[in-house]
Write a structure and sequence with these properties.
Low-confidence stretches: 1-6, 11-18
Shape: globular
Structural class: mainly alpha
Strand content: under 5%
CATH superfamily of the largest domain: MetI-like
Strand order of the largest sheet: 1-2
CATH class of the largest domain: Mainly Alpha
Number of domains: 2
CATH architecture of the largest domain: Orthogonal Bundle
Helix content: 55-70%
Number of strands: 6
Radius of gyration: 32 Å
Length: 352
Amino acid sequence: MDKRIDPSTGDQAVSGYYNEPPEKGLQLIKRKVFSFVNRESVVGYCFVIPNFVGFLVFTSLPVLASLLLSFTSWDLFSTPQFVGLRNFIDIFGFSADPTAVLASWADYLMFWNYLMPHDPEFWKYLYNTAFLMLGIPLGMICSLLMAIIMNRKLRGIYFFRTIYFLPSISSLVAVALLWRWIYNPDYGLLNALLGFIGIQGPSWLNHTVWAKISLIIMGLWSGIGGYNMLLYLAALQGIPQHLYEAADIDGANAWQKFLHITFPMLSPTTFFIFIMSVIGGFQGGFQMAYLMTRGGPAGSTTTIEYYIYNNAFTWFHMGKASALAWFLFLIIFVVTLINWKYGGKKVQYQYI
C-alpha cells in the first residue's frame, strides 16, 4: 500500500485510510451546511412569496390608495380632484348656528349648544355603532356561562357543543330570514309568545329603539355558542385541577372558587376576547342591518361601516368614504391602545 506522511502528526498513514487535513474537511462541512440552508431558504421563500404578493396587491396597495383618495373628490367615473382636508372637515367640522343669539355670559359658556355639525348623520351613526356594541359585554358573559355548562362531563356533551356552535357558522342570510319571521309584528314567534302572557309586542324592526335591541338580541343568539365559547372552553380545560382540590380542602364554595380561581385564570382569554370584540364592533353592523332593516327605520340601525358603504357604492363619494374609513382605523387604534395600557394590567397570566 502507498504510504504517506500525516502532516499533523508526522506519522505514516496507509493510503485509503488517511483523511484530508482538518481545514479542508471543515470547509466541506460548511459548504454542505450552507448549501442545505440555502435550499431550505429557497423553499421557504417559495411558500411565503404568494401570500406576500397577495397581501401587497389586495391589502397594502388598497390601503395606501384609500389614504390618497381621502384627500380627493372622486365619483368613480371622473378624474379624482385634490381637495385637501375638505372631506375630513365635512365629516368632523362644526360651525356656529347663524340664527343663534348669545344674550348673556351663560350663553357664551354653553357655546357648544349653538354649534352645528357639518355632517349630523355621521354623529348619529357613530352613536348607533356605540349602542350596538353594548351587546359585547352581554355576549361575553353569556359565552362564559355557556362554556362553563359545556365543560361539564355529561353524556352527549359533544353533541350539545356542536348544536350550540352551529348558529355561528350558519349563513347570515338564512339567519336573517329566520329572525325577520321571529320579529314579524303580525305572525312572528316572539309576539305570539308575548301574547300568551298578555303582552302586546312592539313592531320590532320598525321602531327606532327596538330595532337596535332586536339586532343585539340576534347577535347574542348567533354568537354566544360560537368562537368565544370555544376560547373560554379551552381556557377552562387548561386550569389546573389541583387548585380546585385545594379550594375544596379549604372549604370554598362554588362562587368563591369561580371568583378566586376560575375568573383570574380566564383573564388572558377574557382580555383577548374583549379586544377582538371591540375591534369587530367598530367594524361590524353592516351585514345584519343591511339584511334586516336596510339601515332603518330613519337610520336608527345604520352604523359607521354601513355609512362607509353608502358613501362609496350608493352615492359614489369615494373620497369621503376613504376619509371615514381612516377615521374608523384611528378610533380602533386608539381604543385598542387604551385597552392594552389599562386593561392589560388586570390580566393575570400565572396563578400565584
